[in-house]
Task: structure prediction
Amino acid sequence: MIKKCLFPAAGYGTRFLPATKAMPKEMLPIVNKPLIQYGVEEALEAGLHEIAVVTGRNKRSIEDHFDISFEMEHQIYGTDKEHYLTGVRSLISECTFSYTRQIQMKGLGHAILTGRTLIGDEAFAVVLADDLCINLDGDGVLQQMIKLYNQFRCSIVAIQEVPMEETAKYGVISGEMIRDDIYRVHSMVEKPKPEDAPSNLAIIGRYILTPDIFDIIAQTEPGKGGEIQITDALMKQAQQGCVIAYKFKGQRFDCGSVEGYIDATNFCYENLYKTDK
Result:
């Protein structure tokens, strides 16, 4: 049983400056909830109660969000505003939250390795909070992936088709199709130029990782951009036939970009916020 979900949340969010100069990108609100809360809700829906967060400088508000604010709660107790806190109160009561700091930003692979002290020697999920994933017609993306893990017992990456001209923004996979939405990964390339991309199947911010990934990352040399890339570590697993790529059901919004953030806000307002009121 997978029970832990890791949130790498130490990055600077430079694509969203100046908003992220003093506020974590993970705390940017989509309508009335911060991005990271959507991610934690997705993890809890999948049965992952232990939330591990890799933070950095100026990220204290993430810890404060998943804590009780006695002064505020006393102020709104018994008023018509109290129900606004129902969702985050449920997360606080049903999940445990642990934190560690990434002192230097050395890439996603390094951020995941930093979380080893919180994860231990067990399989775990990874969520990148600025990739907002929503499935209105069934299980959330993580829940879909957990079911696949129970079948395949190997590392799994979520993928989606992207225009070829956008492959330089993503890790891109190629592999053998097992069924129309599952591939056994043969190779991965980090942010390839369109002419060098092996396919248009791009990895997005949802992973299930087996614990051996930590030792592999620790032995992985810096790659693209001088950073330790999780795709390079996963490629070593893939060479042993141990990585599955899953074309998930649902919609994904890149909330690290302004366009994706606006699209996500409009979508959530129309499909989630208005129906909850």
Remarks:
- The first helix runs from residue 35 to 45.
- The domain at 4-153+205-221+249-276 is CATH 3.90.550.10 (Spore Coat Polysaccharide Biosynthesis Protein SpsA; Chain A).
- The chain has a mean pLDDT of 91.
- The first strand starts at residue 4 and ends at 8.
